[in-house]
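Cross-posting from the modeling subforum.

Setting up a comparison between two proteins and wanted a second pair of eyes on the formatting. Protein 1 (sequence, then structure tokens):
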Amino acid sequence: MAGLGGRGAAGAALALVMVSAAGCGNGSRHSPTPAEQAASAASAAASLAARGGDALASASAEAGRRLDEAKGGLNAKDQVSLGAVTLDGDGRATTTVSARNTASAAKSFAVQVNFTDGGGNLLDVVVLLVKDVAAHGSGHGTARSNRRLHGEVRANVGTALRY
């Protein structure tokens, strides 16, 4: 499965925020509700868009639509892995995405891939859907950056939701 092109940055920005909301605590063991995650995600997406220019400016509008497909999704970051980053003929970064379904029924995954430079600075964000992964099976796809990237490019999973 291919990356979502320009629409991927939007879902990724919201997903990035959702991971931040889920991963940040105030010392308590409170797990944010989906509504709290969505509110925090919208705020962070807007902040990211303001810092990231036009490429991320559309992120907040698309983010809600992209993650709607993962309604009720569970954190599956530990079930997703990425391959090495390569630059294709168009100068876009690509990486393979593997999702391992540990559930007893077929599930889909929404995976946010963050492309960063060697210093960890965010260069681009893509949301990849890996659909209909068989029970106890694996699904694969390729995440491709929305634009040309230069220099050392790394990739990491920002968030992964199994739904």
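Protein 2 (same layout):
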Amino acid sequence: MADSDEITIEVVSSAEAVGRVEWDGVANPASDPTSEFDYNPFQSFAFFDALEQSGSATGRTGWLPQHLVMRDADKAVLGIVPCYLKNHSQGEYVFDYGWADAFERAGGDYYPKLQASVPFTPASGRRLLVGNGPDAKRHRLMLAGGLAEVCSRLDASSAHITFLPEDEWNLLGKNGYLRRSHQQFHWLNDNYESFGQFLEALSSRKRKNIRKERKAALEGNGITIDWLTGDQLTEEIWDRFFQFYIDTGSRKYGQPYLTRDFYSRIGETMADDIVLMMAKRDGQYVAGAINFVGSHTLFGRHWGCVEDHPFLHFEVCYYQAIDYAIKHGLERVEAGAQGSHKLARGYMPQTTHSAHYIAHPDFRRAVEDYLEMERREVARENEIIAQHGPFRESAGDKND
């Protein structure tokens, strides 16, 4: 694929085929005072390469890398769309099983499809990866068009771009893609100086409940929490954390997505971007959660345990993340997909976005009608939930 400026778009079968320097040059441009982009660890070469080289996201697991790479006449990389050809809808956190069923009942083949996303990671971030510069919008549009063309060439039913920022979502919505909304719960830092100050912003009942849960999780079980990062992330620590992941993953998904080698690889290449919240009892780690650190956001991902203790999940995944964000001046905590139970812990509803290219015109119209209704319902639900949030103003006890 090419245009009059001799810009070409090719499809490559791995992040390794692009290379670290060129990938990160557009995925996470070097910080400077004029940069419009934040650092996002899930856009980095290291994360994608670890997924692929570890066998976690490969053709064998139904995630065949088909990354779009845009180059100029001198072969310099101008943009990337991390993308996978898939024969299932697992590990995406934007559910289209109903679409697949409807299309196949009508005689179509929903799979294969293209998935432009970070595998197994429901975290917000750019998906049309281009560098800073006056041509950024044009390059994004070229990548969007290129993805639709690749969809056609591979005879895929559709292309799905998930957890993208609102500006990309709107741009794609004006250029042939259908827009979809979703709900997550994020904690927002209102310049709190301590966890206690955050608690003071909550209604009396919610504040007391959190204090009760934290005390029960830690003092009641004789548990302490360690924050591990950098060179503290040894192979022994990863062995233990993988035990937690396997236990939870086996119960929730049947077969965990990530391999043990994945953790060794990110521990080697991304250690300073990772914080493990590890719960210790009687000198042994019994539970833990993995978090990734961006410029302004702490991204909470999966957790696991080998012992069940009341409220420990809330402590390790939610309260420790808030503590860390406050101490490090981060603006928000993204705590992963779904979970209205997070509301009582100070995490408020936020709208996340995905964009969808549907090749079949009749199927596209049906999906478009559904999405128009769904967007209204998501907006309405978020508004209603926010009115019943845990904060004083929303709870109606401002003077407690």
